[in-house]
Amino acid sequence: MVRYILFFLFVFSGFKASSQILTLSEAITKALAQNYSVKVAKNNIEIAQNTNNIGNAGLLPTLGVNAGYSYTNSKADLEFSGGIPPQNDAVQESQNYNASIVANYVLFNGLANITAFKQLGAQSDLAELQTRLSIESTVLQVVNAYFQLVREQQQLEILSFTKSISKERLKRTEISYEYGSGGKIDQLNAQVDFNQDSSNYLSMLQNVNTSKNELNFLMGEDMQNVFTVDTSSFKVNELATFSQVVSDAKANNVNLLLASVNLELSEISEKLNKSFYYPQVALNASYGYNRSENTVGILLSNQSLGFTGGITLGWNLFDGNRRKTALQNAKIQLESGEYRKKEAELLIQKELQNMYDLHQNNLRIVELEKQNIKYVELNLSRSQSLFNGGQISSLEFRQAQLNLQLSKSRLSNAIYASKITEYQLMRLRGNILKTN
Questions:
Q1: Overall pTM > 0.90
Q2: Which of 159, 180, 339, 346 is 20 to 30 A distant from 388 in Cα terms?
Q3: pLDDT tens digits, one per residue of 164-184
C-alpha cells in the first residue's frame, strides 16, 4: 500500500529528471520570441505603424524636381511680315532646356485627407488586434502542447509502474509453475499481459517524443532540444466568478475589440465617400529655368528664370453616379458592421457560458477521480496480498491492476481537460497574455 501511495505522489508531483525542466511560462516566453508565425505577425504590426502617417493620408505637400531637354532639326518654308524676304527650305534647328522645382498642396477636399488619416490609425489598430489574435492562438497551442506532454509523461510513468507489476507477477507465476504449485495457463496469461503492458509503454514513449517535437516547433527550437516538462504545474486552479469573467471579456476580448474597430472603419469609409461630393482646392507653386534656341526666325533665343504660383478649384459635378453608388454601399457596410458587432457579442456570451460550465464540470470530475483513486489503490493492495496467498486468480489480480491504471489515467485526463478549459477561458477573458 505504501509503495502505491509513494508512486502516486511521484507521478503527480513532477519528474526530477536530469534533463532541463521546462516550465509553461518559459515555453510561452520562447514561443513569443522565436515562433515564426509570431514573428510574421509582429512584422505586420510594424508595416501598419509605418503606413500610419500624415504623408500617406495626403496631409503633407508634394515636392518634385523636373528637368528636360529637346532638340529639333527640320526644313521649313518661312514667310515674314514687315517686308522681310521669305526663306524656302531653311534648315531649322532648335534646342530647349528646362528645369524646375514644383510643389503642390491640397488645401481642401471635403476633409478627405483628415478622414484618411483616421482610417490609417484604425487600420493600424486593426493590425495590432489581428496580431494579438494570432499570438493568443499560438500561446493556446503552446499551452495545449505543453499539458498534452505533461499528461503523456504521466501516462508513461503509470504504464511503467503497471509493467513493473506485470513483470513481478510473471516471475511469480514462472516460479510457481516451476515448483508445481501453479498452472501453465497462469504463466502464459502473465506473459501475455506483460507483453501488452510493454507494448503500451513503447507506444506512449513514441507519443511523448512526438509531443516534444510539436512543442519544440511551437517554441522555434531545434528538434534535438532536450527537456522535460514541469508536472507540478499540472494542478487545478479555481477561476473567478462568472460575472467577473463576463466583465473581463467585455473589456478585453480580442474578437469584440476587432468587431469594434471594423465598425469604426465602416463609419470612416462612409465619411470618406461623403467627402467626394465636395470641391477640391489645391495650391501649386514652381520655381524654374527655361531656355530655347532657334537657328532661324526673328527670335533666336529666349530664356527665363523665376517663380510661378497659383490656386486651382476642381469640382466633379457628375461621374455617372459612381459616388452615389459607393456611398450607398458604404452605408450598407456600416449597417453590416453593426450586425457583426452584435453577433460577436452574442457569440462571446455563448462561448463564455459553455466554457465556464464545461470547466466547472471538469473540476467536479477531477474531484471524483481523486476520490476514486483511494479505493482502487486499496483494492490493488488487498488483491496483491490475496494473490500472493493464492486466494485469488491471476486474472482477478490483473483486473485490480488495470483498475488502478485506468483510474490514474482518467484522473490525468480530467486534469488535462480542466487545464485546457482554464486557459481557453483566459483567452475569452482577454488576459491569457497578461497572465503569462
A1: no
A2: 159
A3: 888 988 888 888 777 776 678
